[in-house]
Design goal:
Layout lengths: L3 E5 L4 H13 L4 E3 L5 H9 L7 H17 L5 E5 L12 H12 L4 E4 L12 H27 L3 H21 L2 H16 L12 E4 L15 H7 L3 E4 L3 H7 L1
Length: 249
């Protein structure tokens, strides 16, 4: 149905865009919400008690922001909210949002969840395999971007090259197979190697960024720590999303 859009909350720009590309391989009209800003945070806070963890507040804000500002007139919105068991409140996110949709009487909005109970295998092995590619690549590219911000002779030019190559990778994630994706990654590696650096990357002081899986990936949640450190000459290695997929499998 061309009216249906699957919206993914932003858990870091690269990871969310890569995941949306994989959903589109299934013929699903999927898009990633842009990274959070203050308006998304305020919208989330206005519709929660503010006692909840920050990821719930922001993911609620993403959903409501799209409904208020980005939704097509005839759009049927399906909001993707993965879930998990265990002591974390993450398992309650989708339940909270379903209740909020009913409370606000928002028409034509539904929640779609995959669960860690079966290692997020609800859409089949091919989907899982491609999603694995997506997250591993996004994890590596996030750290590559950090090195460019911290060490490129011309950060603007380096970022432009990075963004162009990222679009090519997204295309292969959506339409390609592993062989074509592998070839694109080789081409991307060559293009990134052309970016002029101030010093050899191994000489750049590097900081490990760890913490809760959503917060450490979201620019607003981590208060743009990656960019602030880069301005001081520090590159960062952010704990990968892929570790959660390994753990839950």
């Amino acid at each position: 149905d061309p009216r249906v859009t699957l919206l993914l909350p932003s858990m870091g720009k690269l990871s969310s865009e890569a995941a949306a590309s994989v959903f589109r391989t299934l013929g699903i009209r999927a898009k990633a919400h842009p990274p959070a800003d203050e308006s998304v945070l305020k919208l989330g806070r206005a519709n929660t008690s503010c006692k909840e963890c920050l990821p719930l507040i922001l993911t609620t804000g993403f959903m409501l922001n799209h409904i208020s500002n980005g939704r097509r007139k005839d759009e049927v919105l399906v909001y993707f909210m993965a879930t998990a068991s265990g002591p974390c409140r993450f398992g309650q996110y989708s339940i909270f949002m379903e209740d909020l949709i009913k409370k606000l009487e928002i028409p034509d909005v539904a929640l779609f969840s995959l669960t860690s109970e079966n290692s997020y295998a609800g859409l089949g092995s091919i989907f899982n395999e491609k999603m694995w590619w997506a997250f591993v690549i996004a994890d590596v590219m996030e750290d590559t971007r950090s090195m460019i911000l911290a060490n490129a002779t011309d950060v603007e030019t380096g970022t432009r090259i990075f963004d162009k190559e990222w679009e090519r990778i997204l295309f292969e994630l959506e339409y390609g197979n592993f062989m074509s994706l592998e070839k694109q990654l080789s081409r991307t590696s060559e293009q990134l190697r052309q970016i002029s650096m101030k010093r050899p990357p191994e000489e750049i002081p590097t900081v490990s960024v760890v913490g809760e899986i959503f917060v450490r990936r979201d620019g607003l949640s981590r208060q743009y720590l990656i960019e602030r450190l880069a301005e001081k000459g520090f590159a960062t290695i952010c704990s990968p999303i892929a570790e959660w997929l390994i753990y839950s499998d």
